[in-house]
Each structure stands twice: as C-alpha cells, then as structure tokens.
C-alpha cells in the first residue's frame, strides 16, 4: 500500500474513533428521547462523511505541513540572534525578527479562523450590521497577535508563567470595569473563537520550536502556555475596543456606541 494511502487510512480510522462518542450521544437521543429519525437523513449522513474526511485530511495537513513549518521557522528565526549574542547569552532585545513574526503569525492565523469568521458573521446578523464582522475579527486578531508576542517574549526572557498570566488577568479585570457590561460575555467567548483549528497547531509548533532552540528553556514547561496568552489577549482587546466605542463619538453608524449596545441587546 502506498505511504499516502496508508497514512490517510490511519487518519480516517483515528477520526472515526474520535467522532464515535459524539455520534453515539446524538444517535441515542435521536432514537430513544426524541423517537424520530433526523429530517433529510441521507443528506445528514453525506455531511457526516464529508466532516470525517475533512478532519482526516486536516490531520495529515498538520503533520505534513503546518507543524513542520512552524518548528522550522522558529528555529531559523531564533538561531541568528543566538549566534550574535556574546558567549551564547540570551539577550531578549536581539530577537526582534522573532517577535515580529510571532505577532504577524497570530494576526494572520486568527483572520482565517473559520469559527471566528462564522461567529463574527452571526454577530453582524444579530445586530443588523451595526457591528461589522470585519471590525470584530480585526479586534480579536489584534489581541491574538499581542498574546503571541507576549508569550514569545516570556519564553525568550524566561519570565515565570504565573506572573505573566497574573498581569494579563489583572488587565482584563480592569477593562471589565470600564467596558460596557453587556459586551463582557461576548469578549470572553472571543478567546475561544480565536484559538481553534488553524491557530492552535501553528502557534504550538512555533512556541515549542522556540523553547527547543533557546538554551536553558524546556519545550514542555516553556514551549506550552503560549496558547493561554492567545486565549486571554483577545478578551482584553475586545473589551478595550468596546470601551473605546463607548467613550467615542455617539452615532448610529457601523462603528458608533449604538453598535455596541445593539450587539448586546441582540445577543
């Protein structure tokens, strides 16, 4: 059997096993609680087959492209800065290209997140277009960009994870106090929307690669944890965006305060 076919079959079997609990729960409730077959059952089954095949191909894509690319880029961007450091000392301000790439990676991956795109479109529909989906996506992407930058800086500088997280949580608490109360639930959900199928694998591979290359860093304890910054930072960015709109010119256009209020009334 060709290597590609073998890998694809393995990915399909693994995906079927992972999806089995979901199918079991839905099937049991459909058969024994609702006591009726789903409407358009053939179409539903075809859709399930598409989902399984898509997830299997996505597994292969991660293993063959995204994860190796993320690890290779982190190594290539980190090595020159280490070589330029005297006596191999890690000097945090020498890694400017690494920081720039981390921020750009966070922004770019978030903008193509399917979950965030779908939710932003839904929010735009609920508000009648007063809060534009692109504006929400940009605010969230800016937060992830900042979060990945902070996470990379923490790895390079060797900052303790609890202290870094505590500072970010403190910032979120302060923003909750000044942001419109109705926007807070949406802001907290945005972190989950932003860290989905595209962002998480790429960011994890990048961060582990950085921690592997830098001397004195542990890929397990230092490489992981960056996703937490990518999860929390969009909360802060959306709260800051809503607070700025609340205190900005009061109009009924797509960016005015009424847009924020309409969002929360519809949500």
UniProtKB/TrEMBL annotation:
The chain crosses the membrane at residues 12-32, 44-62, 95-113, 134-155, 161-179, 191-214, 226-244. Keywords: Membrane, Transmembrane, Transmembrane helix. Pfam families: DUF1538. It comes from the Bacteria. InterPro entries: UmpAB. This is DUF1538 domain-containing protein.
């Amino acid at each position: 059997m060709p290597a590609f076919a073998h890998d694809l079959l393995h990915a399909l079997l693994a995906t079927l096993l992972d999806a089995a609990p979901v199918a079991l729960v839905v099937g049991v409730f459909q058969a024994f609680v609702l006591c009726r077959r789903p409407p358009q059952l053939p179409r539903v089954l075809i859709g399930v087959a598409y989902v399984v095949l898509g997830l299997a191909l996505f597994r292969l894509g991660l293993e063959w492209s995204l994860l190796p690319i993320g690890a290779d880029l982190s190594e290539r961007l980190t090595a020159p800065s280490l070589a330029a450091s005297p006596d191999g000392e890690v000097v945090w301000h020498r890694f400017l290209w690494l920081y720039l790439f981390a921020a750009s990676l966070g922004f770019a991956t978030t903008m193509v997140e399917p979950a965030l795109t779908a939710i932003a479109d839904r929010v735009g529909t609920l508000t009648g277009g007063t809060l534009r989906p692109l504006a929400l996506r940009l605010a969230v992407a800016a937060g992830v960009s900042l979060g990945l930058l902070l996470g990379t800086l923490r790895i390079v500088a060797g900052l303790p994870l609890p202290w870094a997280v505590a500072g970010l949580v403190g910032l979120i608490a302060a923003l909750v106090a000044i942001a419109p109360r109705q926007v807070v639930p949406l802001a907290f959900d945005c972190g989950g929307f932003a860290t989905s199928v595209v962002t998480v694998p790429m960011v994890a591979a990048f961060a582990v690669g950085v921690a592997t290359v830098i001397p004195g860093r542990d890929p397990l304890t230092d490489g992981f944890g960056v996703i937490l910054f990518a999860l929390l930072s969009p909360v802060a960015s959306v709260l800051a965006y809503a607070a700025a709109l609340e205190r900005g010119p009061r109009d009924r256009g797509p960016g005015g305060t009424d847009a924020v209020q309409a969002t929360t009334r519809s949500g």
